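User: Please fill in residues for this 316-position structure.
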């Protein structure tokens, strides 16, 4: 029992060290080269791993949807993950990953589950421009070495948007309220590695008439706020004259949102700037981590009116 409790405590404290755990699995042979590539999802998104239960097919479902499964009384949509990414399984789809993501529960069918690896976020690089839109980043499993195995970290936001668009909330301009007026020269500094998430955040900030600077990783945001502070100093101003609020995702290559927030709140130059964490990682444990690093607010993706209201409160 003590060993199990230690492992749980150690796992939940990974966020204090810019680390995370990745579940590795295979989906079959890639269509272009026949290789059986590794894929990954953050362990915090995995609710459970099951032997594939009975699937009930749904009439007129999208081709990537296998049907639904009854898991302890909850009816969950099951997505054929190999079909989404263009792989052909040779061993069938015997495993189901049940995930909790952005207030929704869904399941992914996979060919094979391999292992859980513990990584630092600096072992992960953005995948944008390197391949398909279903992949958000590339993880160097064995460290930042030439011969490291590579795993494709899936962009679950984009996959759900493509396969189940009705589950992704659209921005309703009549619900997000009036425009938010920032003092002249101020912007919101935002960070998110998912192209889809960035697009949705940008659309909302534009609808609210809020000027913003968008970055793709926590490290890019951290470098940007420091350079903006230096620029402000040359103008005889402070960073508070430039940045009204930081809006950040949690899962990002190079530096995660926990580390970004901790860096901001531990720096005398930046600590008074409100930080709002906007993430698909939901649950009590993550909310406790958010409080521990000093974030001013935490909002689960993606309900436009809730995000707008959270930004308003943080700016007061």
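Assistant: Residues filled in for all 316 positions:
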């Amino acid at each position: 029992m003590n060993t199990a409790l230690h492992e749980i405590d150690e796992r939940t404290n990974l966020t204090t060290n810019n680390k995370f755990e990745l579940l590795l699995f295979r989906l079959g042979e890639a269509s272009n080269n026949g290789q059986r590539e590794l894929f990954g999802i953050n362990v915090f998104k995995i609710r459970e791993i099951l032997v594939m239960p009975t699937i009930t097919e749904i009439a007129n479902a999208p081709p990537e949807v296998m049907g639904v499964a009854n898991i302890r009384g909850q009816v969950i949509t099951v997505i054929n993950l190999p079909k989404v990414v263009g792989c052909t399984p040779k061993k069938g789809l015997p495993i189901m990953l049940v995930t909790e993501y952005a207030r929704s529960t869904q399941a992914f069918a996979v060919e094979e589950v391999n292992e859980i690896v513990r990584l630092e976020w600096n072992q992960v690089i953005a995948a944008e421009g390197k391949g398909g839109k279903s992949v958000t980043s590339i993880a160097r499993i064995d460290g930042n070495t030439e011969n490291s195995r590579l795993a494709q970290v899936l962009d679950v936001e984009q996959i759900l948007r493509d396969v189940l668009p009705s589950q992704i909330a659209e921005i309703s301009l009549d619900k997000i309220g009036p425009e938010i007026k920032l003092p002249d020269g101020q912007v919101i500094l935002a960070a998110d590695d998912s192209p889809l998430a960035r697009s949705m955040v940008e659309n909302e900030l534009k609808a609210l008439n809020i000027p913003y600077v968008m970055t793709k990783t926590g490290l890019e945001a951290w470098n940007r706020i420091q350079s903006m502070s230096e620029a402000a100093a040359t103008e005889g101003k402070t960073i508070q004259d430039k940045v009204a609020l930081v809006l950040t995702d949690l899962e990002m290559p190079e530096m995660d949102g926990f580390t970004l927030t901790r860096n901001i709140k531990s720096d005398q130059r930046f600590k008074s700037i409100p930080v709002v964490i906007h993430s698909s990682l939901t649950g009590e444990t993550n909310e406790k981590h958010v409080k521990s690093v000093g974030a001013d607010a935490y909002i689960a993706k993606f309900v436009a009116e809730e995000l707008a209201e959270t930004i308003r409160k943080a700016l007061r």
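For context: DSSP finds eight helices and 18 strands in the chain.
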